């Protein structure tokens, strides 16, 4: 049956409206460049300058953050399990998971605090303090003291990741953010992966000053964290709209151009006065919890790998301790390549959901190979797929939520809940591979497969929901993402 002329006309009008909306945003950004007399060459220069000062700095700081919270696996096979009597009980899992209790609880206030005192002071100070906690962990005499240190570490690290996610989202337009999120996470993820090799080298210090190798791992990495915290104080930048007298790295004209283009892209560059009621009101938006659940599913797998991969390589696959410490790194190197490539694709073609689905499929294929194949070398290949897909979904999910949220305080609330659910995923990841399931860890593998399948369902549902809302907005029936700053004409959700 052929379509009626009325239907064809309606479809043409709908397509025109979609094209007009997209052109409207692009034209607005071009007008901002013209208004501020910014040439394409100057645009590239300014953005590269921001990338170097912002993305690389928080990436290196995130490297030590990720390394410091996940070095238990390296320490455990370097003698910690024996010295602290962690064999044959669940004390290791308790030490792993107590970190996330305070890590989750202290995240919402941290995203408010970073706006009040600025990211330079906030991020560098908490990094310096948790470096001191890391050094103290090297002198823990029993598992209870180690657990207490991990609780304190959670308090201090709670504000770091959500503040970085929030800070990055304020400097870039929606379709520049994917690559920046991936570089930020990639620097931290890939560099911290080589911490296994570094840990193996530090282990050789066993016996110096009467300390075991695992103690030196905590002490040396704690000292490194303190040094990076000091450097971060000098290198970190503030929010682009901040009026604080900080170490300026952009001229006033360039900073105003940055703010104007973000305003043109999503209309929320200005920060209204903080009101607790409005801040918590964001929790009524079900999309925020959907993003958070995606991140929970993702981090369940990434933390399980971070905490237990050295143990799986030694116990399940039969590699030596030295080989296991070194074999952790190559899968994370592949993860860096995948996350950068997929984020480039997502920014270029202005998509987010398909990137998450692709990465999720890598995990679904990799987990059964990693867990059930009879050959250890083939199982190690499964580790590559699982590690690449799961870790690549971290920046992909960050960009997904950042693209589809408007309003500064709503963005701050979303960043806090998003990362908090990642912390809950950390608790799950700490528990899925239990001692009693050694060496096969079958229940843990089933749990990781289940959370990964749930991600497919959530992203599919959100994609359909966004498609319906965008169509309704194109017809003028609704306004999208209205906040305290009002409605941003032309704003559409990113599938």
Topology:
Layout: H1 5-35, H2 40-70, H3 72-83, H4 91-105, H5 107-117, H6 119-137, H7 143-157, H8 160-171, H9 177-193, H10 195-203, H11 213-235, H12 252-266, H13 276-281, H14 286-315, H15 321-327, H16 329-349, H17 353-372, H18 376-403, H19 408-432, H20 442-474
Helix pairs in contact: 1-12, 2-8, 2-9, 2-11, 3-11, 3-14, 4-7, 4-19, 5-6, 5-8, 5-19, 6-7, 6-8, 6-11, 8-19, 9-16, 9-18, 10-15, 14-15, 14-18, 14-19, 14-20, 16-18, 17-18, 17-20
Task: Provide key terms for this protein.
Growth Hormone, Chain: A; 20 helices; mainly alpha; disordered N terminus; single chain; 495 residues; globular
- Quick one: biggest sheet? none
Uncertain regions: pLDDT < 50 for 5+ in a row?
Answer: 1-25
* Strand proportion: under 5%
What CATH architecture label applies? Up-down Bundle
Helix proportion of residues, in percent?
Answer: over 70%
Total of domains = 1
What is the tally of helical segments? Answer: 20
CATH topology assignment: Growth Hormone, Chain: A
The helix/strand order is HHHHHHHHHHHHHHHHHHHH
Structural class: mainly alpha
Please write the CATH class name: Mainly Alpha
C-alpha termini separation:
31 Å
- Write out the CATH superfamily name: MFS general substrate transporter like domains
